[in-house]
Design brief:
The chain is an all-alpha fold and 150 residues long. The chain has one domain. Helices cover 74% and strands 0% of the residues. The chain contains 7 helices and no strands. The longest helix is centred in the first third of the chain and has 30 residues.
Length: 150
């Protein structure tokens, strides 16, 4: 048996995390590949899948989403289709934006197991190549999550 070391512990932790990501997320990614949503929708869904990897204080998130919902409601039907350029999504993105959160999102997107999933891999690559697109997609996923709860 190997002696305990921080390096071995880190390697074990990384392996457990990789299995967790692969086991829970891979099936969802395969479903997305089969369903074939358009690329902007796919980007938002990918961001929604990794939302738990981005540190957000629940109170801050709830307040920011509430304000974004007010902006959305002021523009008409709050349940209409939203896009990356919606004012409410842009406002939410701006309010929650920090370099640390963007880095967490980028790292989570990097960990997605997209092998043999060409549409998913293309969407993930687009998000990784454009930090602003990734952040707006993440904000839209949070807003869509709020709308789904209503």
């Amino acid at each position: 048996m190997e002696p305990f070391s921080a390096r071995n512990a880190a390697s074990s932790s990384d392996a457990v995390k990789a299995r967790r990501v692969s086991a829970g997320t891979r099936a969802r990614l395969e479903e997305l590949e089969r369903s074939g949503p358009d690329s902007s929708e796919l980007g938002v869904v990918l961001c929604w899948l990794v939302r738990g990897e981005v540190s957000l204080d629940e109170t801050e998130l709830n307040g920011a989403r509430r304000r974004a919902m007010f902006v959305l409601a002021a523009g008409g039907d709050p349940h209409r289709d939203l896009g990356l350029d919606s004012v409410a999504a842009e406002r939410l993105a701006d309010e929650l934006d920090t370099p640390e959160r963007r880095a967490q999102l980028a790292a989570a997107l990097d960990e997605l197991p997209t092998d043999d999933l060409p549409a998913v891999a293309t969407a993930a690559t687009s998000l990784r190549a454009d930090a602003e697109l990734a952040w707006r997609s993440f904000a839209l996923s949070l807003l869509a999550d709020e709308l789904a709860d209503e």
